[in-house]
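Sequence in, structure out.
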Amino acid sequence: MTVTPTHDSDATLLAETRGLTRRQVATAAAWAAPVIALAVATPLAAASEVFDSPTAFVSGGLAATGTSATQRTATYEGGALNYNSAGVPGLDSGEITITIYNNKTASWTVTTDVVTAYQTAGWVLVTSSPGSTVFIHAAISNGATISMPAITWSAPIGSSKPLLGIMVSSDNDDVSGLGVSLN
């Protein structure tokens, strides 16, 4: 006589009646530990300077303080323009262009003499207006950095949040640009 079980195995029957087994809990914990470790490590990896393609990028921080009920300040500091050729031998950055922009000129004003500060650091002024200032710099090689002086913007009580940043581009079609922005 052949008996057809209603469950695939006794373990399945036991799991259905008792919930999870100790083995299942131990297996889940063993698999969860690497996932938790990866989730903790991800922000560090995202902040590192590893690129899959040649990239000119801005380092440093852009942060704001204040609310609409107080005077607001935004500051870019501690930075440089960096170039990473992503392992492509002999590939320089091409001519670098940075655009320092402020899309809320009615309320946010730059309080740093950006033109003088950046020209002193070796940047060449292309154009300047209340909404943007554009500079260029000659090509740099892999691993090189160019100083980028601090910039401070301010806005009065009642102002809206900022829309500020520094965009980067290269005249070399093989080089990407990575800037910073604040909104």
